[in-house]
Design a protein that fits this description.
Structural class: alpha/beta
Number of strands: 12
Shape: elongated
Strand content: 5-15%
Order of helices and strands: HEHEHEHHHHHHEHEEEHHHHHHEHHEEEE
Helix content: 40-55%
CATH topology of the largest domain: Rossmann fold
Number of helices: 18
Largest sheet: 5 strands, parallel
Length: 410
Amino acid sequence: MTLSEELQWRGFVNQTTYKDIQALDGAPVAFYWGVDPSANSMTVGNLAIAMMVRHFIDYGHKAVLLVGGATGLIGDPDGKAQERDLKPMEEVDQNAQAIVGQYQQLFAGKPFEVVNNYDWFKGLGYLEFLRTVGKHVPMRQMLGREFVQRRLSEDGAGISYAEFSYSLIQGYDFLHLFRTKGVRLQVCGADQWGNSIAGVELIRRIEGGEADIWSAPLVVNKATGVKFGKSEGGAVWLDERQTSVYRFYQFWLNADDESVEGYLGIYTLLSRDQVAALMAEFKQNPGGRAAQKVLAYEVTKIIHGADKADAARKVTEVLFGERPFQDLDAADLVMLKAELPSVQSPADETLPALLVRAGLAGSRSEAGRLVNAGAISINGARLTGTEANPLHPGDNLIRRGKNSFAVVIR
């Protein structure tokens, strides 16, 4: 399979300056992809383009991965209705270091080079930039950008000169990498098309050279029409300190049936045949959610490693009643206790009192009714009376109904 074929079946084809996408199948080309350090972690939205970048690398193209230490000081205004708040330089620098760490994790074992655009902007004077770059950019081109028109409209919030100039700064990145690294291609998400075109135009006007863009469509939840990567709690981060491994796994496990096949192509390294076989199994028994389970495991393994993916899968199976609680080892229990309420219980505590303190019942009388109704289980065993309290020394899992849990340590 060629790279252009790989990108097509996986869903990575959107706008491109190539007249024929099979141009990607020729001689290796140096390309770049950039992320602004507006936060100290990438999200699953960034991950989609990162996965595309892996395919470019695997097919022999040379990757230059940029972290926007300079552009991050301004902030990309595209898609923003309001002016961004400027972040302190120290915060941007710390975020940039964190993004570089994620590059190193995502592309471990792959050939790539990391650059920071602050390194070439810090010594570039304002007058020099206006003379060597600004002189070559028509105002009509900049004013024609859709987000600029929205911000300047009667109902718009307006736009500062700094944010208005953002595309110029990013365009210069492409020009600089064209000159110094031989970069001839920028890969990006669809929302970066306008900024990328600015770089292509600079290269043409200043160097008389040719450069190209390959953009991937933004991933959208087909069931809701919402840009993928948002949950009720906000963005889904790759850093486990912001989105725990368990919650990261659950995010993928909850993928809707309509979208899961597309996510398998974008976010996993499974082959086309493997995805086809999995989807055939899934369509035979959608209720078994085989596709979502494989998706959750594979993406979690890529981001957090096999051990944590195994733990997330085991903890999930225990909570869904598909695996006995006793199968969890020490590492699994650490993950479980990080997600659930956890209480200590003395040996003489009654079951109703424990259920109230664990937040599984509002009162002792309600606790009794829940137990008598068969709604309470401990370590997978359903209780039949309040006199029964089968807690064993150490960790125990109490469950109320289908979705309420607490860990009790005795």
